[in-house]
Amino acid sequence: MQNREEILTAVKEIMVEMFEIEEDAITPEARLYQDLDFDSIDAVDMIVRLKEITGKSVKPEDFKTARTIGDVVEAVFKMLNG
Questions:
Q1: In this structure, what is the dihedral angle of CA atoms 44, 18, 48, 71, given to the nearest 10 degrees?
Q2: Helix, strand or coil for residue 39?
Q3: How do the residues of the chain divide into helix, strand and coil, expressed in percent and rounded to 5?
Q4: Side-chain half-sphere exposure of 43, counting CA atoms within 13 A
Q5: Checking CA distances to 59, which of 35, 74, 75, 80 falls within 20 to 30 Å?
Q6: How far apart are CA 44 and CA 14, in angstroms?
Q7: Crossing angle for the helix pair 4-19 and 40-54, to the nearest 10 degrees
Q8: pTM of the predicted protein model
Q9: With contact defined as beta carbons under 8 Å apart, do 70 and 45 qualify?
Q10: Which sequence spans correspond to the domains of the chain?
């Protein structure tokens, strides 16, 4: 995963596979909690999965401010390229 588009694709795959969210609903503007019915347990599960995929240490605090799919993509991008 080198760019934001690849990260978005990976996030979509995780959300469809793990949380059975419709792929069409997963857009950069989609709000995690309001639009996608995400909760804090789901967020932890997704962070664990991202760690497995990236091989990088994922700090939950990096994702605390994430409110949209775009925020998650940006957090992963910074993590990979920071």
A1: -70
A2: coil
A3: 60, 0, 35
A4: 20
A5: 35
A6: 13
A7: 130
A8: 0.91
A9: no
A10: 4-81
Instruction: Convert the pLDDT of each residue in 6-58 to its tens digit.
Output: 999 999 999 999 999 999 999 999 999 999 999 989 988 998 999 999 898 87
The letter for the amino acid at 46 is M
Assign 31 to helix, strand or coil. strand
Give the span between the Cα atoms of 74 and 22, in whole angstroms.
Answer: 21
Amino acid 82 reads: G
Q: Tokens 């390229």 — which residue? A: 81
User: For residue 22, which of 40, 35, 5 has the smallest C-alpha distance?
Assistant: 35
Crossing angle of helices 69-81/40-54, nearest 10°?
A: 30
pLDDT for residue 82: 78
CATH 1.10.238.20 given to domain 4-81: no
